Amino acid sequence: MLRETEKRILQKITDFADKSLLIVDDDNPLRDRLARAMEKKGFEVTQADSVKQGISLAKNSPPAFAVVDLRLNDGNGLEVIKEIRKIKKDSRVIMLTGYGNIPTAVAAVKAGAIDYIPKPVDADDVESALLASPETKANPPENPMSADRVKWEHIHRVFELCNRNVSETARRLKMHRRTLQRILSKRSPK
User: Fold this and answer.
1) Where do the structural domains in the chain lie, given as residue ranges?
2) What is the pLDDT of residue 141?
3) How far is CA 134 from the centre of its chain?
4) Torsion angle of alpha carbons 24, 130, 95, 88, nearest 10°?
5) Mean pLDDT computed over every residue of the chain
6) What is the mean pLDDT of residues 151-156?
7) What is the pLDDT of residue 166?
8) 4-131 CATH choice from 3.30.2350.10, 3.40.50.2300, 1.10.357.10, 3.30.420.10
9) Angle ∠(29,83,158) on CA atoms, nearest 5
10) What is the SS3 string spanning the chain?
11) CATH code, 147-185
12) Picking from 6-10, 33-37, 68-72, which range would have the lowest pLDDT averaged per residue?
């Protein structure tokens, strides 16, 4: 339940004439799930899976809102953000990433993003970030993931990106292969 101060800060999608939302992410299941959830919330969603496609869609039909992944197969999502902001200055853009760190957050904000959200992401968090008043900070998540869960998610993401190859994953994470195997055999923390 929203508190009284949050009700004033958070706008509704019905307050906007242009409800267009561009989602640019090369993680197809995440992008599709987020697109369906955002359509249910009232956004008019278009999807792209690359920098090239994202820029092309932004040029053809500049979105009022955008959710852009930092690392895409063909380049950097910051290029898409810069292009959107060049075409439509008042567009509200947020950056998503599975590799959160301070320098990339600063780069995203300098490129024109209004917020920076680490993956895995929840549709409610995306909606809150997109609709928050520009003068205020976004509210912290209600149920943030524990540090153990974030670590577990990161390890499994790298494991999937390495085509479930334990030795390659261990090398990239700079950890012993047996330690990684023990982590992978356990259930996810809460």
Assistant:
1) 4-131, 147-185
2) 61
3) 18
4) 70
5) 82
6) 83
7) 94
8) 3.40.50.2300
9) 35
10) CCCHHHHHHECCHHHCCCCEEEEECCCHHHHHHHHHHHHHCCCEEEEECCHHHHHHHHHHCCCCEEEEECEECCEEHHHHHHHHHHHCCCCEEEEEECCCCHHHHHHHHHHCCCEEEECCCCHHHHHHHHHECCCCCCCCCCCCCCHHHHHHHHHHHHHHHCCCCHHHHHHHHCCCHHHHHHHHHCCCCC
11) 1.10.10
12) 6-10
Residues 6+ apart with CB under 8 A from 59: 83, 87
Q: How far is CA 27 from the centre of its chain?
A: 10
More confident residue, 11 or 62: 62
Tell me which amino acid residue 75 is. Answer: G
Provide the token pair at 55: 């820029």
pTM: 0.67
